[in-house]
Design brief:
globular, mainly alpha, single chain, 208 residues, 4 strands, two-stranded antiparallel ribbon, disordered C terminus
Amino acid sequence: MSSRPQQLRPNTEAALQLHGGVALLLTNWFALRTAVEQGWGGHESEAKATWLVDTIAAYLVEDGHKIDESDLADVLEDIMGHEFQLVLEDGSCYDMAKTLHALFRECVAGDFTGVAALRARFPNTQLPRTVAGVVDSDGDDDDEGGQFADADAIVDGDEEDAVMAAALAAAAANAGSDAMDVDDAPQQPRGPVPDEDGFFTVGRKKRR
């Protein structure tokens, strides 16, 4: 009995759906939103975040069939460290990578219910504008910055848990996986203090 060949790459429709889902997941990722808001990527923090979304989506479309969650987590960690001087030691990069890869597998299979759930949860999501003073490479502070583009779209740890669960609800293979677990966001974010090399470190997450 012949088996149906496995589709390794998403078709055009699946690629578009995947990009939309990736954008919703990453723009609601607390680590990225905080990095943009605090200006840890410099004056181009918002542009870097948009580039990150497009890069991860394209990476999944082209190579998602031959990478795993660890590979994707490594890419996220590299970009967050290089572009935003942010070192994530709380496991959130791997949690996000696991969720993104599960969404990829759904889309390749023609299942877009996870993407639909994200769109229903975040119909008007935008990245925040930088509101903190931006530290230039020469150490000078720049207090220029806008307001939140969509402050209501910021999610705390509990809401992120719900989003991740909704995104993976249709993935039977991942039905038992843990959703992302991050500490609740304060109303006025208090980011990590940069070390002597200018890097911000997010420590290991607390066990609930």
